[in-house]
Specification:
Elements (H helix, E strand, L loop, with lengths): L15 E11 L10 E10 L4 E7 H56 L1
Antiparallel strand pairs: 1-2, 2-3
């Protein structure tokens, strides 16, 4: 069985090269003496050199994490079907080449017989 192409080789699309993250907790602010609000800070470096900084409250980070997990699960479910379709497509192309060759041969034999 063939494997799917490496996503880093996709034409025109940058891939994630580096991910750094940390959790920060604001203990207090100038307006409130006690806050205790955790946030997740992420720094993502892409293969094209761009850097994206993202700051999320913990609840939004969990939503993102669950959405990514669902997407990965769906991709794992679909990947074997895509792979099977690619194999079937190659078989059809091979068989079509054989049909064309037989058609060409039949045409030549028919032309000789006239």
């Amino acid at each position: 069985m063939e494997s799917l192409p490496d996503p880093s080789s996709a034409v025109g699309l940058p891939h994630l090269e580096d991910l750094r993250w940390r959790v920060e907790v604001t203990l207090s602010s100038s307006t409130v003496s006690r806050v205790l609000r955790p946030t997740v800070l992420m720094r993502m470096k892409l293969s094209d050199g761009r850097i994206h900084l993202v700051e999320l409250p913990v609840d939004k980070f969990h939503e993102l994490r669950h959405a990514v997990a669902r997407s990965l699960h769906e991709m794992e479910t679909v990947a074997p079907k895509v792979e099977a379709a690619a194999i079937a497509s190659k078989k059809v192309a091979t068989n079509w080449t054989k049909v064309e060759a037989v058609g060409t041969l039949a045409g030549r034999l028919n032309a000789k017989g006239k």
